Amino acid sequence: MSELDELYQDLILDHTKRPRNFRDMPDATAWADGHNRLCGDKLRLYVRIKNGVIEDLAFKGDGCSISKSSASLMTEALKGKTVAQAQEIYEKFHHLLTSPEEDESDADGLGKLAALGGVRRFPVRVKCATLPWHTLQAALKNDQAPVSTE
Q: Residues 94-115: what's their mean pLDDT?
């Protein structure tokens, strides 16, 4: 295992054991539920937006280490971003995990989110990592239908 892979693994484990923004948010302006039936991940994602800026993000639920760390890293990365910036980050992150070949530039601008790039080597786990992101997309659209990765 390379030193970089080990660093990324440590980051993912840290966010799994001590997830950031893992809480209810009574003053959320929107929320959505997500479920990955294959792995059993379930989460509720809360978002508070004011003047087009994501002021706060939080989540609750149960899931595997990949989904929990992805949700934790996502909430940290998107706080204070505009909805348009969050959409750009979503597109980059989704490309990182779903593009067929690894490219160093895929992780450009993603910061700590790049730690989840190794998930692309395990296609069944991509759904775990992207569940929080698809759930955020639903929340931003005020779509109350449960999100599924199936």
A: 80
Q: What distance in Å separates the CA atoms of residue 9 and residue 142, rounded to the nearest whole number?
A: 34
CA separation for the pair 57, 103 (Å, rounded): 30
Measured between alpha carbons, how far is residue 42 from residues 1, 2, 54, 82, 106 in Å? Answer: 31, 32, 22, 26, 28
Give the number of other Cβ atoms within 10 Å of residue 63's Cβ. 24
Angle, vertex CA 28, rays to CA 67 and CA 21, nearest 5:
40
Number of structural domains, the chain?
A: 1
Question: Containing domain of residue 88, as a range?
Answer: 3-142
Residues 31-89 pLDDT 10s: 999 999 888 999 999 999 999 999 999 999 999 999 999 999 999 999 999 999 999 99
- What pLDDT is stored for residue 104 in this prediction? 57
Give ∠ CA 15-33-110 in degrees, rounded to 5: 40
Pairing of strands 147-148, 41-50: unpaired
Residue 148 located in a structural domain: no
- Would you say residue 6 has pLDDT above 90? no
The CATH number linked to 125 is 3.90.1010.10
